[in-house]
Amino acid sequence: MGLYARGDAAAFVVLYRRHEARIWRYLERNVRNRATADELMQEVWFAVARDADRYEPTSRFTTWLFTIARNRMIDSIRTSPQQVSLETLGYEGELVVQQLTTEPNVGPLDAVVVRDQAAALRQAIGQLPREQRDAFLLQIEGDFSVEEVATITQSSFETTKSRLRYARTKLRELLSEHA
Amino acid sequence: MNRVPPSQEQPEDVDDQYRRASALDPSRPSEAVRRAVLAHAARLAAERATRIEGSKTKSTRTAVNQAWWRPAILGTLAAAALAGLMIAPRFLVEAPRAQGTRPNTAPALVAQAPDTRAEERAPSAPALGPERTAKPGASTRNADVLSHTGGARPKVSARASSGAAPVAAAAQSTDAMVGGASQQRAPRNTSVATAITAVPRISEAPADPAAAVRRAAEIGDLSGLQMLLEKQTDIDSPDAAGRTALMLATLHGHTDAVAALLAHGADPNAAAADGTTPLQAARAGDHPAIVAALQRYGAR
């Protein structure tokens, strides 16, 4: 980040590639709308590029990055009207099928298994209450501790811990139902 | 790392399942987003690099590049001229009155002082700020000098006609600097240095921000466009032909400008006066990237 703040464009590319997938999954699985997630993704990284010289390495870069992503996402949810996506209309499975079957490294049998698991997991995550989903995705995609999730979400440690516990319990229930 | 303590069951199995599924999930942001992000970052990096390079150059030429050197020179010149105007007549007036009572050496020396000071100080002006050369009490003191030389006014004015030239020149240079744009000129009876520093800066804001946005979109000036868009300009304001900035960027095939406008909330369906939509224009102009970007933002 320091290199980029001093004008090294290549440093940003490295940074972007390193965190692209995780930020994308965090946004896309929270908002459950590909177009909105695309828009948020762009806004988040524009903000990172713009504020690079204001970033102070007092905390991890991922903490700063996910905080920006979360704030943008909340702003988007607050200001945008309710969006109806294919996913919310029940096309999520189809989308996953399309995405997974285009993956060249996955064989047909694996693709079926993964497709099934991924669809079930995404569906289960989508059924979590928003705060639990946010906390769970933050922790698993950002690889954060409970304290860090609590800091990013501006919640108490105990509340965050409860949200994470409930989220995992609920996910386990939903996945076992699916199985 | 402080992970959630395991409950009765094993929560990690959910995490593992999630990670396995995620690892095989190829879902990624669209290519257009990736390109827009990296292009934006590269442009900002280039601007930063230029800025840093510029500041290094500046630091080696401080005397030339200091922002205050121009007012400092003008202030010094003006103060020197004013001092010359005020002090010279005093000695010219006193000289006849003091004849026989005081030696004539001082007036002779001081009478030449203003011009030489003005000439000598000018080159060293950048090293002095206007506040150091134009002392607060100078104008009042000089006013007193003028009021106490009532009987000698013809002489003063006669001398002042030549002595006033630097002041007039300073005032004229001030007018020229403002270019007639300033309507709030400081009164002439105050310090000239104060008058110079009181000149308001000419605004750099464009007269019509919406037109500036359209122009930047039309020529593909992405950095200019970004700057304007960050100022909450009316992004969908059309020109006389009903073409918005998005339409103009589309017509000229500026993909990055289209992406920036869409990202800033431009209406992807704002049609021109003849009914052509941006999507139709992009298709007609054979700009597939723009077509894709527009469709992603709901263009019909």
Brief summary of the model shown:
The complex is a heterodimer of chains A (179) and B (300). With 179 residues, chain A is mainly alpha-helical.
Could you please describe the fold and organization of this structure?
The complex is a heterodimer of chains A (179) and B (300). Chain A is mainly α and 179 residues long. Chain A folds into 2 domains: 2-79, RNA polymerase sigma factor, region 2, helix turn helix motif (Rna Polymerase Sigma Factor, Chain: A); 87-178, Winged helix-like DNA-binding domain superfamily/Winged helix DNA-binding domain (Arc Repressor Mutant, subunit A), CATH 1.10.10.10. Helices cover 79% and strands 0% of the residues of chain A. In chain A, helix 7 packs across helix 9 (157-178). The termini of chain A are far apart. Residues 89-97 and 99-104 of chain A have low confidence and may be disordered. Helix content of chain B is 62%, strand content 0%. In chain B, helix 4 (69-97) packs antiparallel against helix 6 and helix 12 (209-219) runs parallel beside helix 14 (245-251). The longest helix of chain B has 30 residues, at 31-60. With 300 residues, chain B is an all-alpha fold. Chain B is elongated and about 100 Å long. Chain B has 2 domains: 69-197, no CATH class; 209-296, Serine Threonine Protein Phosphatase 5, Tetratricopeptide repeat. Chains A and B meet through helix 2, helix 3, helix 5, helix 6 and helix 9 of A and helix 1 and helix 2 of B.
